[in-house]
């Protein structure tokens, strides 16, 4: 039984659910996930915090209702996992059976393995997919964006109620230096730029700072795309954790993970999820397509 009791954001909750799944796989057990897995976002929705408010069922086997009616708690081999008791199993990432092959295939084998779990869990519901397609049409996007950026400013970067910050703030220029390195002819992926040199380079920006678009005019050769509504919701503590805010965050995740290149902060769970989803897409050479302006990638505990 996967019970996530932590009060934290979506990235944190998703990684904890993925740890439950990884633990179940490694012990050859069945994972039963509580339906109200999205605890912080569902207070203003008719379906509450139910997983199916945003995602399809993770499998076709609906066992939770049956599990509640059964006497599972009386079974000696029944376990309920909550929070994150899996640290002692970090050596499972990636599993020994596939570790050698993964290391020959990618420079980020752990991100690849976690990405398969995360990608399998995040099966967007039809209504959410329709919202994303409407957004793409509104932005006149006929293909995935070239580059995506995740720029966080208020979420854990600014101190809240005297708490210590989790990550330092970085200027927009720092992100764009990485973009230039990825796109321009003297960069590693100059062939990509040559192929698209007559097409405006589209950059999708996901951020919790509504003032960030003021910096876009300093880079006229790029076409910046962003979700203004999502920015506004994420910038305020009293709207960051409502249902609409999660809708917009999931839109951001789809847009960022579909890009050819990504620049973010790997101190952020969301940035790491983007990398994991790019791995799940089967995009080749992902480690050379992503950059972090702060930490290196690591598997969330």
From TrEMBL:
**Pfam families (alphabetical):** FUT8_N_cat
In terms of InterPro entries, this protein maps to: Fut8_N_cat, GT23_dom
UniProt GO BP: protein N-linked glycosylation
- Ranges of residues in domain GT23: 1-293
> Which GO molecular function entries does the Swiss-Prot or TrEMBL record give?
alpha-(1->6)-fucosyltransferase activity
Note the PROSITE patterns from the entry. Answer: GT23
Question: What Gene3D superfamilies does the record point to?
Answer: 3.40.50.11350
Q: Which UniProt keywords apply?
A: Glycosyltransferase, Transferase
Keyword Nucleotide-binding on this protein? no
Q: Which protein is depicted?
A: GT23 domain-containing protein
């Amino acid at each position: 039984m996967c019970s996530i009791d932590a009060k934290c954001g979506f990235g944190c909750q998703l990684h904890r659910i993925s740890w439950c799944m990884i633990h179940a796989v490694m012990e050859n057990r069945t994972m039963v996930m509580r339906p109200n897995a999205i605890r912080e976002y569902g207070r203003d929705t008719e379906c509450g915090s139910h997983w199916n408010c945003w995602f399809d069922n993770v499998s076709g086997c609906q066992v939770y209702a049956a599990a509640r009616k059964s006497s599972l708690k009386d079974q000696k081999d029944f376990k309920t996992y909550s929070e994150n008791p899996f640290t002692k199993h970090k050596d499972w990432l990636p599993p020994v059976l596939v570790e050698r092959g993964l290391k020959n295939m990618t420079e980020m084998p752990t991100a690849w393995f976690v990405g398969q779990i995360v990608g399998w869990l995040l099966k967007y519901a039809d209504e959410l997919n329709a919202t994303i397609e409407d957004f793409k049409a509104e932005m006149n996007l006929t293909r995935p964006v070239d580059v995506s950026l995740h720029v966080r400013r208020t979420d854990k970067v600014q101190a809240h109620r005297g708490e210590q910050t989790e990550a330092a703030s970085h200027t927009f220029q720092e992100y764009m230096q990485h973009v230039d390195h990825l796109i321009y002819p003297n960069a590693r992926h100059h062939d990509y730029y040559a192929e698209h040199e007559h097409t405006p380079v589209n950059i999708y920006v996901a951020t919790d700072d509504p003032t960030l678009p003021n910096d876009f005019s300093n880079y006229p050769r790029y076409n910046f795309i962003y979700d203004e509504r999502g920015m506004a919701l994420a910038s305020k503590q009293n709207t960051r954790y409502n249902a609409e805010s999660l809708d917009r965050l999931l839109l951001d995740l789809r847009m960022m993970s579909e890009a050819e290149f990504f620049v973010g902060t790997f101190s952020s769970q969301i940035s790491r999820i983007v990398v994991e989803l790019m791995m799940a897409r089967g995009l080749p050479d992902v480690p050379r397509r992503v950059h972090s302006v702060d930490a290196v990638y690591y598997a969330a505990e």
